[in-house]
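Long-time lurker, first post. I've been practising inverse folding by hand and with some scripts of my own, and I keep getting stuck on stretches where the structure tokens seem ambiguous. Below is the full token string for one chain I'm working on. Before anyone asks, I'm not after the true native sequence, just a reasonable design that respects the backbone. If someone could post their per-position residues I'd love to compare against what I wrote down in my notebook.
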């Protein structure tokens, strides 16, 4: 039997209901200054319970320890962590003083405990509350979670009021040219059921407050590349006749596009909300076309959306030959072993050629190895500037749709709370990569070749989104293909493939895996 320990966090809402929190949410609540607010907890003292559960074969077996803490929330919905630290410090000092006393009578223990609780950082549950918490931790009852689709936590089922971290009065802009904030980043960590996020910054990994990056302005560099693209002419558009546009970058009710089969670039505007991603072909019915400051604008109604990358005229990414890959020379790891079912066919196939995909990162300085707008976008995201991060990534796509790393990170940033939108970003990256590989590719794309990673990240995220949306057959095909492309399986696909084959719900597996860490 495989035995592990899992920490599960819960709180009692002001209504008395038990609510579940993820480890990421608990970490965010304990940051100072706290980057989120909880409107439902404003002005309340909220009781939290952290329960250490012993897992046997990935299933809850029994409870090892329970810690009860009390956190007060100010009127603006932010936890008063300064007061919590003062109370915790005072309680710790009191406990150390007690341990130093020679008198260890039962009366002294009782006095210490009541004083400890009186300091304000602990609470004692009633029997019914303790039983509800333990049942939830052991998986014997279902409880609602604490959602955080924006910089605001909310009770599940309620709509949070978006806010900017550090600015309690200003709502987060949802439509300023827009690229809305669609999620808050998880601090560090990597789970097999999550997209690959191994490019986190040191500030994030250390758990400190992120600092906005002070690096070259890559957005200006990319916009300079955009200005080199020829503008579409009004004569290229026939009003009332359907027109195909290639989406390069998106806004809430519009998109920067180029004419399909031609080089002209324009901005499309509509009264409807567009749910498209860079790489989509958008068919529109033009109603009006005009020019302003040397740029062409088109208004009309969207008719259809599709992916058809063979029609985009993209130059395939080059493949650099890295020589033969021999499965007999590889280390397969003890946990899978040479006789694992997924590895048998790969080993039997014998040596195959290995390749590295060409890197495509527009806006970087070839003379500066640390020059990377994608890494800058990650820094912006971790610095609580999500709109700027998304805008920078889409600007990279507009400069060159073959920037697979931009597609991968757009999907990663939206994975937690918009898996349907993340699926489209990942699919765009996968299909562009497949254009370069060709339909009969039978080689290996080793993870050790760094420029293969964006494509493998796109495939991993695409498979996870398919699984999460209940498209098990397609997810199974993606994961099996990934094992053939990268048999070293650095992304842990071999661990989730059995769950997909068994058609297990993604949410159950992800919650269990996160609890196991």
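-- Answer (accepted) --
I ran through it position by position. Result:
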């Amino acid at each position: 039997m495989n035995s592990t320990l899992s920490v599960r966090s819960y709180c009692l809402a002001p209504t008395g209901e038990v609510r579940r929190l993820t480890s990421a949410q608990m970490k965010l609540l304990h940051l100072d200054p706290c980057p989120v607010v909880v409107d439902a907890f404003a002005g309340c003292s909220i009781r939290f319970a952290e329960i250490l559960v012993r897992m046997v074969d990935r299933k809850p077996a029994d409870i090892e320890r329970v810690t009860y803490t009390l956190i007060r929330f100010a009127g603006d919905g932010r936890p008063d962590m300064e007061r919590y630290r003062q109370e915790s410090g005072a309680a710790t000092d009191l406990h150390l003083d007690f341990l130093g006393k020679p008198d260890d009578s039962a009366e002294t223990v009782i006095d210490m405990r009541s004083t400890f609780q009186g300091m304000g950082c602990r609470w004692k549950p009633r029997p019914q509350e303790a039983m509800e918490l333990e049942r939830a931790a052991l998986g014997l009852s279902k409880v609602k979670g604490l959602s955080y689709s924006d910089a605001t936590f909310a009770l599940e089922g309620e709509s949070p009021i978006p806010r900017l971290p550090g600015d309690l009065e200003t709502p987060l802009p949802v439509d300023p040219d827009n690229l809305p904030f669609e999620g808050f980043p998880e601090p560090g960590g990597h789970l097999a059921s999550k997209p690959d996020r191994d490019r986190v910054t040191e500030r994030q990994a250390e758990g400190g407050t992120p600092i906005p990056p002070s690096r070259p302005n890559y957005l200006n560099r990319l916009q300079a590349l955009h200005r080199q693209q020829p503008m579409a002419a009004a004569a290229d558009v026939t009003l009332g006749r359907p027109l195909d546009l290639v989406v390069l970058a998106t806004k809430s009710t519009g998109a920067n596009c180029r004419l399909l089969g031609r080089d002209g670039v324009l901005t499309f505007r509509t009264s409807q909300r567009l749910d498209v991603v860079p790489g989509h072909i958008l068919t529109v019915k033009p109603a009006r076309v005009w020019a302003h400051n040397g740029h062409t604008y088109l208004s009309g109604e969207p008719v259809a959306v599709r992916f058809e990358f063979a029609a985009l005229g993209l130059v395939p990414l080059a493949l650099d030959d890295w020589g033969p890959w021999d499965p007999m020379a590889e280390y397969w790891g003890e946990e899978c072993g040479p006789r694992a079912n997924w590895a048998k066919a790969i080993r039997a196939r014998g040596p195959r050629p290995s390749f590295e995909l060409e890197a495509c990162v527009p806006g970087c300085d070839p003379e500066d190895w640390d020059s990377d707008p994608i890494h800058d976008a990650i820094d912006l995201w971790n610095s609580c500037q999500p709109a700027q991060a998304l805008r920078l990534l889409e600007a990279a796509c507009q400069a060159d749709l073959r920037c697979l790393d931009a597609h991968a990170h757009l999907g990663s940033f939206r994975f937690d709370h918009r898996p349907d939108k993340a699926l489209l970003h990942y699919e765009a990256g996968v299909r562009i990569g497949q254009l370069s590989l060709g339909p009969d590719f039978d080689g290996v794309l080793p993870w050790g070749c760094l420029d293969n990673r964006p494509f493998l990240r796109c495939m991993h995220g695409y498979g996870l989104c398919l699984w999460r949306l209940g498209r098990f057959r397609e997810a199974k095909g993606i994961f099996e293909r990934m094992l053939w492309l990268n048999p070293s399986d650095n992304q842990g696909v071999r661990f989730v493939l059995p769950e997909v084959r068994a058609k297990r719900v993604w949410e159950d597996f992800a919650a269990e895996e996160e609890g196991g860490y």
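A couple of notes from the structure itself: DSSP finds 15 helices and 16 strands in the chain. The first strand starts at residue 3 and ends at 12. Happy to go over any region you disagree with.
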